[in-house]
Amino acid sequence: MSKSKKNIVVTAVEQVITEAKRRGRPVNPSSERQQRLALMAERRANGEVKRGRPVNPDSARQLKLQSKGTGKRGRPVNPTSARQLKLAAKVVA
Fold this sequence. Notes:
The chain has about 90 residues and is mainly alpha-helical. The protein contains four helices and no strands. It has helices spanning about 5-20, 30-45, 60-70, 80-90. The chain starts with a helix and ends with a helix.
């Protein structure tokens, strides 16, 4: 391929890439909504805000779940099994 054909192909590919980035409605970063979203993202990253509804540990349902012992799930671990001994040796080493 000649040098001029390569340049045309490269510029065509670059044009397609730049056109693909400009999808959707443009965002105004100084709008109230964008500033509020940025503030919430920052607070979520700091751990100040969590998603979902917080759990009330004193509610009747939570007390009932604690009395049932549903805190742990799955099969209990046997600490003397060959696999657990092997894993413990890896941690120490």
